[in-house]
Amino acid sequence: MDDLPRIVVVGALILGSWAAFGHKLVLLRRDPGNPSLRVLCLTLGMLAVAMSAQFAAPWIDGVTGIANLGRFLGNAATMVALGGGYGFLLLRSHDEAGTPLTTRWQLTGLAVALVSATVLFALTPPQPAASLGVDARPVHVLYSSPYVYVYAGYVAFIEVKVGIVTWRYARLADRTALRAGLRMLTVSSVFGVLYCAVKAGALTAGYFLLDGVGEFEYAAGSVLYLLTVLFGLVGLMMPPLARHTGKAAEWLRLYRAYRRLFPLWQALYAADPTITLLPEASAAGRSRRFRRLRFYLYRTVIEIRDGQLALRPHIDDDVLTRARALTAPDGSRAALEAATIHLALRADPAEGRTRPATAHLAPVTQEAGFLDEVRHLEQIARHFRRFSRGPSSRGAHASAHR
Fold first, then answer.
1. What would the DSSP string read from start to end of 7-39?
2. CATH of the domain spanning 4-238, picked from 3.40.50.2300, 1.10.3720.10, 1.20.1070.10, 1.10.12.10
3. pLDDT tens readout for residues 31-67
4. How far apart are CA 95 and CA 238, in angstroms?
5. What is the distance of C-alpha 291 from the center of its chain?
6. Where in 81-186 does DSSP place strands (E)?
7. Residue ranges per domain, the chain?
8. Which of 79, 95, 140, 185 could form a disulfide with 235 if both were Cys (CB 3.0 to 4.6 A apart)?
9. 0.90 exceeded by pTM
10. Which residues contact 185 (CB under 8 A, 6 or more apart)?
């Protein structure tokens, strides 16, 4: 890898592979009896090893003194990763039970391919010209070893089977992220088959001493290999990433709602601290919450409604009339509730209300959904901030005691 853009891309894929492997390994520690998760960890781990070995091939060859050892280790790890990936798809498509006969044949085929490739690599005469770590010559020199046929044949065979399985199940997937991930794996399989065709074709052409084969094999093979790994890694990680992204988006929505409702809750709490039953009842203790956010948002909604009920002794038809005047020409229900809260909080505590309001604030109902209630209270909080800061609220409050 003698150009910077390719080094950056390969480095990013290596880091992504190790990160994905580490994430799944943490999940495996929590659920060690999950067979599909074990196979997925094997797949991602071998993929990370294959990418790392290919990247560090010059160093491996230079340290060991064995030409093209790094290349072979990367190819062998790729074969294991592909076999594991196909096994993962088999397990997931058969509800974790798998098909023992198919799994046995897959393991046997992988073992035969690995042993054959190892023997052919060992029998191949050293080719220092094709190894940058042993002889500092251009890496574009074609490496001619019969084991490449075994490697390309096995990889192409598995890629075809993976492509068929992923294409078939993508049409049946009911989740968008899962369907997109399977499509990505299908595209990865297409690039993988093309990569194998380039490897085998270049090796065959090299036996006929055709010029420029090494340059073509390096340029086309490297790009196809990177595309295969990229689409495969994205396809494997897209469903869990979509799930985590959805959780993060939900947390942000809850946090935004919590921060929007907090000033309204704080004003009601200052008027009547008994609306909360939580130990950390102070406003400072509730100002910043990052964990158990849904619980605290739920409590905030209830306590805001309890605070509204506690303000009823300060609300009569006169307050509602001035609240309607304050909200004109908006006149929305949220604005009316916000204006009523604003005026009731500024009422003189010694001033009694002898006439109950003929219309009052609606309590929390079981029929109303939690998120609908949150959105309604967000509108109330927005109008409440406007009334609290606007000069019209002070004028309305002054006219109320003339």
1. HHHHHHHHHHHHHHHHHHHHHHHH-TT-HHHHH
2. 1.20.1070.10
3. 888 888 888 899 989 999 998 998 888 889 888 888 8
4. 20
5. 19
6. none
7. 4-238, 250-400
8. 185
9. no
10. 162, 163, 166, 231, 232, 235, 236
